[in-house]
UniProtKB/TrEMBL annotation:
Top-level taxon of the source organism: Eukaryota
Name of the featured protein: PLATZ transcription factor family protein
Organism: Sesamum angolense
InterPro entries: PLATZ
Region feature (Disordered): 152-177
Organism classification: Eukaryota, Viridiplantae, Streptophyta, Embryophyta, Tracheophyta
Amino acid sequence: MGGGRGEEEDDGSSKWPAWVGPLLRTSFFGQCKVHAAAHRSECNMFCLDCVNGPLCSVCLNLHKDHRTIQIRRSSYHDVIRVCEIQKYLDITGVQTYIINSAKIVFLNHRPQPRPAKGVTNTCRVCDRGLLDSFTFCSLGCKIVGTSKNFQKKKVGKEDGGSDSEESMSINGSTKHKQVIRNKIQSFTPSTPPRTATLNYRSAKRRKGVPHRAPTGGLIIQY
C-alpha cells in the first residue's frame, strides 16, 4: 500500500500505513486552538508524518517538509481529492465522485436507509448503492472490508433468518449486522453540527402551499 513511516494491522487485515486509522477518526473543520486569532484558522489539513490531529493553514509552517493532505467537505461529510490521496494510498475499488470538477472519495461511510429496489451493486461493508465497477463507498469501508477476519454472508431461512438478513462471520462465530456498524463507527468521527447561521435561516424559512406543476412535479413556494 501507500508509504508510511510505520505500519499497523487492522484486526489481522492486510497492512495499511499507520496514519490511516488516525486520519479516519479525526474531526476536521473546527477552529484551531493554537491560532484562533488567525484569518484562516479552520483545521482542514492533516500531516501524514506527524499524525498529530487536524491542522490549520498557519500550522503548516511547522510542516513544510512533511507530507500533508487537505480534507474537503461535501454535504457535511469529509472527502479528499483523488489526486492527493492516491499518492500515498491504494484506493482501488473505492467509488469516486466529481465535485467542483475534481474527482474525490469519501473518508468514511454515510448513514443511509436500505438500498432501493433494483440496486445490483452495493458496498461490501455498509450496503450503500454503488456503480458496478466499485466495491466500497469510502476509505473507511475498504479498511473494514479488506480485513482477513471480515466475511459477510447471507443468512437464509434454513439458518433461522430471512433471505435479506445479513451477518458477519468472525473467527468462526456469526454475529449480527450490528457488529459491522460498530466496526465502521470505530473509524468515523462525529459529524459537526450545522452552523448557527444555517439554523437561524431554517427557523425563519416559512413553507408555502405546494402547487402541482403542469408536468406532475411538485413546486414548493417559500
